[in-house]
Structure formats: structure tokens, C-alpha cells
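Q: What changes when magnesium ion is included in the input?
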Amino acid sequence: MNQLEVCFSPELIHLHDLEGKIVVVVDIFRATSTMIAALANGIEEIQTFADLESCRSMREKGYLIAGERNGKTVEGFDLGNSPVAFLEEYYGGKKLAMTTTNGTLAISKSQSADEILIGAFPNFSSSIRYIQAQQKDVLIHCAGWKGRFNLEDSLYAGALAKALEGTHSSDDDGALAMKTLFEKEGHQLKQYLSKASHAKRLQNQGIEKDIDFCLTLDLYYLVGKVVNDRVRPISF
Ligand SMILES: O=C(O)[C@H](CS(=O)(=O)O)OP(=O)(O)O
Ligand SMILES: [Mg+2]
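A: The predicted holo structure follows.
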């Protein structure tokens, strides 16, 4: 059996050994859900940035630029961090540069992993199939919120732990706790996560459609994987 463990914040990732593992970076609200929406709608690669100005400079290289701070689209950027906005038109063959508050930081702190996957509910089953085919230990890296634990990323970790229980053991306390929570609340994901602080923040901004998209299972049969520092789609 392979092992599965959970890291609840990028602030804690230095305590984990990533070598040889598949790290699944997850930021349900909304960065990793938005990346999957973008890849499903034609974006061929996503380069992520911690700071706004490096991201902005990618426009000169022909990239679309997407940026969010405090949940709002950055002035002058083509797009923000809304998955639903990426569904409005087809971005065939375009490249995207992206910076967000939590998700892009979690990716940059996962670089020593053997493989980095982008975790989201809309491509949940594809990620499961991909992971099962690799036979490696898994670490779920929750982006959290500004260094803190959050419910939506952790519950995704629980869903993954549950789905992988035939091949990956969840001896890790965090994985065990989240699997138990998912077993209790997973049947009413949308209702349960409407209580999450970030869902409330997004509701205040009137973006219920984003919340709904981020919590919908299996819309796409692709995996988001970081290859040569770019997130790319793999049909799976
Ligand atoms: O855009 C989002 O949903 C959040 C914004 S914030 O952290 O609530 O300010 O960013 P993300 O990186 O997707 O968590
Ligand atoms: Mg988030």
C-alpha cells in the first residue's frame, strides 16, 4: 500500500518530505478550480506567479494574464480568479499567466515533489485514476487561506483519501480526520461548505455561480499536471 498524508497550509509544507511523492495542490475556492476550467476551455498551459508585476509582464510574451487580490480581479488584467469567466469563451491554444492569493503560492512551495497535480472537484475522478496508475505516495497540499486551515481544501483531501482507500493508507492523523469528515458530510458537499468562511466571502461578492462550479464533480476528464513549471492538461 502507498501512503497518503495531508498538509493543511503552505506555511506547514516545510515539515513534509515531498521527494518521490505526488503532491496534489488544492485550492477549491478558487485557484485550482479555475485552472481546471481554463484547461478544459482550451488554455494549453498556465504559468503561475507569486507577484503581480511578474505576472503582468507576461502580456508582452503574448500570454493572457489573470490576477486576483482579496478576491477581486486586478486592474488591467484580462481575467480574475473566476472559473465561470473561463467558460464564457473558448481559449484554444492560448497561454495563461496567473497569480492568486493562496493557490499559486502552494504550487510554488511544492516544487521538490516528484509530480504536482492540480486538485479540483470538476475533474475529481480523472485525478483519482491518474494517481492509482502511478503507484506513488501522495501528499495533499491544501492552499488554505493566508496561511490558515480552511474547510473546502481539507474536505477535498478527505474525499481523495476516501476514494484512494483501496490503494493508499491514511495513517496520517490529518488524512484520517478529513476522511472521517468527508464520510459524514460528503453527501451534502454544497450545503456543508456553504458554511465555510471563504464561501461566505464569495457570496458577499455575489459569485454564487463560482461556488457552485467549484463544488461540482466530474465535469471534465482531464488531469492538470505541472510539467516544466507550467500547468498542462492531460486527458485521463
Ligand atoms: O480568489 C479567491 O477565491 C481567493 C481570494 S482570497 O484569498 O479570499 O483573498 O484566492 P485563492 O488563491 O484562489 O484562494
Ligand atoms: Mg482559496
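Observations recorded in class: The first strand starts at residue 2 and ends at 7.
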